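Lab notebook, bench 4. We co-purified these components, and the gel suggests they stay together. Before we commit to crystallization screens, I want a quick structural picture of the whole thing.
Request: model the full complex, all chains together.
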Amino acid sequence: MDKRVGSVADAVAGIGNGARVMIGGFGGAGAPIELIHALIDKRPRDLTVINNNAGTGRVGLAAMIDAGMVRKMICSFPRSSDPRAFTEKYLAGEIELELVPQGTLAERIRAGGAGIPAFYTPTAYGTELAEGKPIAEFDGRRYVQERWLKADFALVKAHLGDPQGNLTYNKAARNFSPLMCMAAATTIVQVSRLAAAGDIDPESVVTPGIFVDRVVEVPHPQQEEDLVRAGAACA
Amino acid sequence: MDKRVGSVADAVAGIGNGARVMIGGFGGAGAPIELIHALIDKRPRDLTVINNNAGTGRVGLAAMIDAGMVRKMICSFPRSSDPRAFTEKYLAGEIELELVPQGTLAERIRAGGAGIPAFYTPTAYGTELAEGKPIAEFDGRRYVQERWLKADFALVKAHLGDPQGNLTYNKAARNFSPLMCMAAATTIVQVSRLAAAGDIDPESVVTPGIFVDRVVEVPHPQQEEDLVRAGAACA
Amino acid sequence: MTQNTRPNSRLSNAQIAWRAAQDIADGAYVNLGIGLPEMVASYQPPGREAIFHTENGILNFGEPPAPGEEDWDLINAGKKAVTLKLGAAFFHHADSFAMVRGGHLDVAILGAYQVSQKGDLANWRVGSTGVPAVGGAMDLVHGARQVFVITEHLTKAGEPKLVEACSFPLTGVACVTRVYTSHAVVDIADGRFVLREKLPGQAFAELQAMTGATLHVDGEVADLVAPDI
Amino acid sequence: MTQNTRPNSRLSNAQIAWRAAQDIADGAYVNLGIGLPEMVASYQPPGREAIFHTENGILNFGEPPAPGEEDWDLINAGKKAVTLKLGAAFFHHADSFAMVRGGHLDVAILGAYQVSQKGDLANWRVGSTGVPAVGGAMDLVHGARQVFVITEHLTKAGEPKLVEACSFPLTGVACVTRVYTSHAVVDIADGRFVLREKLPGQAFAELQAMTGATLHVDGEVADLVAPDI
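Here is the predicted assembly.
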């Protein structure tokens, strides 16, 4: 079994109109810029995208939104240093927003990956973000029932990846990516370096290969912050 | 801040009658034998113990049970190569058993650590282990509601530990321990080697120090399998 | 592969394990229950390599070590010493059961006391006496894409293990997808037993008489043959 | 510690942050919200070292790097570059919020639009227009053992921020434990504001007039003083 694919274009094959796509990264840390732009080249439409944010500048996720590919964003914080792509579409009523508290977003994704259809959290109890959700009391405190989140595809960026899909990440670029790998039917990973089988210490594997379907090497990945600073229109 | 303590006796200080104690390990892998025997020396009674198993031979958890310290076991598999300590007490009606499927046990402990008071799982639906528990349907499938598990203390064995309590484990000795560290009010760890602050790669930390309260070095820990094979009555 | 051409009167345990192993694809993620299911690992067809998961936190473990080489921190769910293959990973129990419950395993293989035609499984206790112990069985029967049971066709007392409804306490409801027995390969489909393979030397009526519920035929019934092992 | 002996007419933002920092114990695990709360890290008393958590997956991060030394994979929740201290750890978002929701943080410090006497907090949006964004605030207000708010006592328009009931959308219900303002330190206890410190130069009646709900006195009211910083 070898999960390596030869190009980012091959890596994103099969993502069609209406797909539900999780994209790793917290701001630019862990954003799989090259996979996103390979997807933009294919222009699927009506996507539901799950990410903590909603893009910045004109690159990466923001470029997907600019290209009119995203019907709905599920995120916690659709603001950034330059949020105009999302903001314009949102204020024009051209993109739907499901706003989810950050920890609830993470836990819903983990639940999707772990086969937990619903759980209770104190987060958002009594706020407008809990409206319409079931409430239950445990040990005298009230909690909101939240549902799992799953996706058809996850696009994530990792540091090392071996042929079986075992992954490590770089620093805080880890963020949502290990959870998204669990929660997507097909997980697509750009790694900064391919490792040989056995090169990753089994103790240090962060995402075991069982959660990964395709691995493509992008040896010098672009960093969203650099692209935004350079005013890049598109990678 | 320095979480190191000088002896296993100091490490288990404060565990009193009626305490709820999680003990790491899956069989002998990760069993904190030295901490357990330090606790046996103090003889608290009426403990509720949470472990995957219920001890083997006459050492470790089995010795605690033999000593009459355990009022209730919460576990998935109270059988072993030599289960007589638990079996005798159980058949005599002297120890209570809450039997929990292994994955549900792990998830309940994680939920306790993560502030999730309840969750739904397909596991045990339609079986006697789900009797009396709320059932709910999501997307056409039925699930059992399970509650979090927390403890007053966790006793675990790790490989490296630094003064801040960051931990790594050895191979499959990891098992329930990272979860138990999260779910106990006071987490007590025997490490095979103390590391200096900064000696553990931040990428490879399995249990971040925030989940750990006391760390004691036991450089040559005993292994349950060896003790049982040697017929040890008590470590 | 050498196959026996002489019809068996029944498959041995090793042959049942061999037969189940033929249905595991290269690269499949597989959890083998303690006991008879563990034998499946020995019979992977040449050129195929499954990745074995053990619920105590290892992916891609291998053969037992040589005697005296055991590392008791490197064990499987049956608490037997194992070794690692290249590309192995360790993880904690919550992640391990996320793999199970979250539908990431391709195949889980378990033993059985009884399997019902609805796919209900009873494999954890036979009554209400003694010390009950469940381990990971109730988790494993949910989540894996295919849940295989490998078992004798009859109990030692000669009772059918494939039944209309289980009389023993259930491990899971409507969870088994396929059953490999000493006498047949049977799918669970729409709440019915569908016979896929039977021993070439045994008449359908005889097999049906050994089975506690109707065996449906839906398409070809192939010969169940296994090599002498 | 040098302290100003001249009574302040109000505390500056830095002084509010300084005052909150005095209540953080050595070794405490602390999450500082984006903006004003981040300043608290600069004013830890000598000999005390808190361990800072950022919800995007770092424990024990330190100061910003020198300009030009930024690593954009090493950022905090405000997406500013940080450095690591010895004994740092990385983890994913679910583990990070397990720390938050699971009650493992000693202190979370947030800003506020409004705080009610019941401890309700409104700090994420002021109305129903524009693009809403919540981030981790709704998680942080639950779970931390102490939830501190640091804020001006009045809005720029001169309205009280400490109120009987919040009129802005809530971030959390009954979650704030203590409020540090430009004019006072106030605990939330049993659904009431309890005044703990006030500016020595300000009369109680004047402070009460600036406050949208009754300020209760329960024991000593100390002088709120901060060094010139």
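Chain B touches chain D at residues 1, 110, 112-116, 162-164, 166, 182, 197-198, 200, 202-203, 205, 208-211 (CB under 8 Å). Worth comparing against the SEC data before the next meeting. The first helix of chain B runs from residue 8 to 11.
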